[in-house]
Amino acid sequence: MSVTFSFDGRKVPASEGQSVAGALLAGGHDVLTRSPKYRRPRGVYCAHGHCPNCLLRVDGVPHVRSCMVAAADGMRVQTEGATRRRFDPYRALNLVGKLFPVGFQYRWFKRQNLAWRLWEGRLRSLAADTEVPAPFEVPPARRLSADLLVVGAGPAGLAAAASAARAGLKVVLVGRRARLGGSASAVLGDQGSTVGADELEFVRASADVTVLAPATVVAGFDDRYVVDAGDAAVEVTAPASVLATGAYQRAVAFPGNDRPGVLLATALHRLALEDRALAGAAAVLVTDDDSAYHCADDLARAGVTVRAIVDTRPRGTRRPDAELPPSTEVLTGSRVVRIRGRRRVTAAVVDTGGAWRSIGCTVIGMSGGWQRADELRYVATSTGDDVVHGSRAARIDPGQQGGGPMPVLHGVGAVVGTMDRAAALAEGRAAGEWAAGEWAAGEWAARA
Ligand code: FES
């Protein structure tokens, strides 16, 4: 079934379940926002709710991450602030950006009375000034109590929730996206993998697992966690939690890597395989790790032509066993030095080690390694660092933290550096069993 929504007054078709950002990209609407300082155009970048590039006003609600919202019939989507204007004179700032010293910020004008009076209103508009929606009644928080909270619904989180529930624990599982399963296939390739399928099926069917998705844990106080579940807040009380929040893909540094059409490789993966928004696209992947090869394999199967993998690692680096089509060139010891195309990306100029080559493409995917998505440990504890531990490391007894009872946070999967799907599943299972063992031994009952 297809749906139609409006984007700044223009009709945009979308297929059922497709994200707003995916539908806009498929419809050729590349620029969604602009950078507040130089007004540089910004388009979909992470497709996973982790950047400010796709913030739009959706049905009157400002600053909505459009890559995380499914398109619906009759939806009204608008750009915000000066991005909305057909002619934005401040775009000229990008042309004179070189005149500003490195580190210059507009707040410098605050020190200049006259300049500040002239600039204050304009700065608001540059920073996506938007209309505040009418006041509304905030519904009271829903309260849930569980034996274990699992944050993250990728393979490790699913395994932890399933094994704890199988052992008789009441579990609350919080997933960032409505679709459970995480981004492991984007990281490791192999869309058809059935690793973790049992856990997924069990979690969906089990009465002992309460799934909150799409939802985000936004705060933690001792054994209470606040979950933003979109239309309501949920307060979850659990004496222990498993952190399975995964990892963020990093960008690769090259000139123009912030332009619309240059995305993270995982974003390309999601847009091509889930949103079906890249039909007919030609991609170049820039990488300094192995995951781009698996991604290329999946993209090719989804109908995207992967023209080249530009691997910044030295020549002779052994590539993983991904089945790349013969049309995909692998250029090791190479780097992107320029992006061609005025309104759209049309080519990547690659230095292959002395010689420069222009490779035609419509999108560029970056895979610059991984950064653990472990922010929750800072908001969930007052002591930060010492409370999260991989299953391979010893768990610090919460009593050692001082200051009364603390939740036990147990990290599993990519958040503790385990990027292999089978290993992440094993860690998740072990964490669930560990939780069940602690509960059976009465470790938490005394503190609950
Ligand atoms: S949050 Fe939507 S593209 Fe990054």
**Percent strand:** 25-35%
Total count of strands: 27
Q: What is the overall silhouette? A: globular
Supply the CATH class of the largest domain: Alpha Beta
How many helices in DSSP terms? 10
Mean pLDDT: 84
Count of separate structural domains: 3
Q: What is the CATH T-level topology of the largest domain?
A: FAD/NAD(P)-binding domain
CATH H-tier superfamily of the largest domain: FAD/NAD(P)-binding domain
Question: Which class do the helix and strand fractions yield?
Answer: alpha/beta
Measured distance between first and last alpha carbons: 48 Å
Largest sheet: 6 strands, parallel
Task: Draw up the topology in text.
Layout: E1 2-7, E2 10-15, H1 20-26, E3 33-34, E4 41-42, E5 55-58, E6 61-65, E7 76-78, H2 92-95, H3 113-126, E8 142-145, E9 148-151, H4 155-166, E10 171-174, H5 184-188, H6 197-205, E11 209-212, E12 216-221, E13 224-228, E14 233-237, E15 240-243, E16 247-249, E17 262-264, H7 265-273, E18 282-287, H8 291-301, E19 305-311, E20 329-332, E21 335-340, E22 347-351, E23 356-360, E24 363-367, E25 370-372, H9 376-380, E26 389-390, E27 408-411, H10 421-440
Bound molecules: FE2/S2 (inorganic) cluster (FES).
FE2/S2 (inorganic) cluster binds next to loops.
Could you describe the 3D structure shown?
With 448 residues, the chain is an alpha/beta fold. The protein folds into three domains: 2-83, Ubiquitin-like (UB roll); 142-247 and 371-440, FAD/NAD(P)-binding domain (3-Layer(bba) Sandwich); 262-368, FAD/NAD(P)-binding domain (3-Layer(bba) Sandwich). The protein contains ten helices and 27 strands. The strands form seven sheets. It has a six-stranded parallel sheet with strand order 11-10-9-15-27-26, with helices on one face. Strands 2-1-7-5-6 form a five-stranded mixed sheet, covered by helices on one side. Strand 12 (216-221) and strand 13 form a beta hairpin. Helix 4 (155-166) packs across helix 6 (197-205) and helix 7 (265-273) runs parallel beside helix 8. The longest helix has 20 residues, at 421-440.
